[in-house]
Amino acid sequence: MEPSEQLSDLSSRFSHISTILKPSDLLEKIALLEKQAIDQSLWANIENAQRVTSELSRGKQLLSRLDEIEKLLDDTSVLLGLATREGDFAAASEVNADIAKLEAMLRSLETETLLSGEYDSRSAVMTIRSGAGGDDATDFSEMLMRMYLRYAEICRIKSTVLETSYAEGAGIKSASIMFDAPYAYGNLSVESGTHRLVRMSPFNSAGKRQTSFAAVEVIPLIESSDEIDVPESEIRVDVFRSSGPGGQSVNTTDSAVRITHLPTDTVVSCQNEKSQLQNKIEAMRVLKSRLLEIRRMEEDAQKKQLAGDVKASWGEQMRSYVLAPYRMVKDLRTEYEENNPDDVFSGKLDGFIAAGIKWRAQQNR
């Protein structure tokens, strides 16, 4: 496709996004939120103040991105005209670079326009658990943990490993990670499901091909305005010494905290902080997030029953990572695939996540 055709396509896609997001309505909403933000009485209600300032920040950020794309489209169009008229190779090279940048910016924005779920704009907590496959499964679970941490690093998402349970052999039995950024849940929730690894096992003396499994669960992180009441009588708090690689005294004192919600038998652990109190605060926040997710799932199940919704759930083995006899990573729901597993394990997940979000939107129509 010629640069002029690419630019025309990008302009068309931007017009479609603008129609959906309605910048004029966004400006009105920002103006209203700004009035609320400067009202001195706002901070009498801390929870409402946090909601207002958060919505204002997100609105301004979105408007700024729309303005940036519109300006870059205009500048690139002018530059393309110059390059065409005068045969300027330097300008032509710059046009190609701008088109690539616009493609990435629009793809990200297109994905976010599909994230309209109740909790999509939230931060997220991901839990990875090893499944069948022995040492290969626990090793695979650790590979997935590194993959998601690397993805967060690439995308500049603040990530915190809350708790890790190390296996006796290789890898980990489980791990919980907090991703603190707008729309972290909306993006990462499509990673929920069973992941499968096929490779020549490094733990098998016969060198046979081994299949192993790991489960990924993603829940939205609770906010202060969510109404989740957890009476002290319904929880049991245990303290213990952190396990695994230590440093900074985290595994030399009984600072790790495990909280069990007795009515649902939901267990949450946190061992990231040095302070037992800090770990308890984080663990309670994650526990409330899990209880909120349980409540949401119960409500969704009831709605589906009332509506007669018989659509299948995401099911097992949503993605396969094959390292032998050939090399490929394929999402079994969307059919999206990459032929370089090393890139994927290094955090290259944008394609899978974008395809997953579009697939989910189609399923919910």
Main sheet characteristics: 8 strands, mixed
Order of helices and strands: HHHHEHEEHEEEEEHEEEHH
**Number of separate domains:** 3
Identify the quaternary structure here.
Answer: single chain
Number of strands: 11
Report the radius of gyration as a whole number of Å.
24 Å
Kindly report the spatial arrangement of strands forming the biggest sheet: 2-3-1-5-4-9-10-11
> How far apart lie the N and C ends?
32 Å
Count of helical stretches? 9
Kindly provide the name of the CATH class of the largest domain.
Alpha Beta
CATH architect. name of the largest domain: 2-Layer Sandwich
Shape by Cα distribution? globular
Characterise this structure.
A hairpin with a 4-residue loop joins strand 7 and strand 8 (about 265-270). This protein is α+β, with helices and mostly antiparallel strands. The strands form 2 sheets. The protein has an 8-stranded mixed sheet with strand order 2-3-1-5-4-9-10-11. It folds into 3 domains: about 5-115, Methane Monooxygenase Hydroxylase, Chain G, domain 1; about 125-225 and about 315-365, Alpha-Beta Plaits, CATH 3.30.70; about 230-305, Double Stranded RNA Binding Domain, CATH 3.30.160.20. It is globular and about 70 Å long. The chain starts with a helix and ends with a helix. The chain has 9 helices and 11 strands.
Quick structural summary:
The protein has about 375 residues and is of the alpha+beta class.
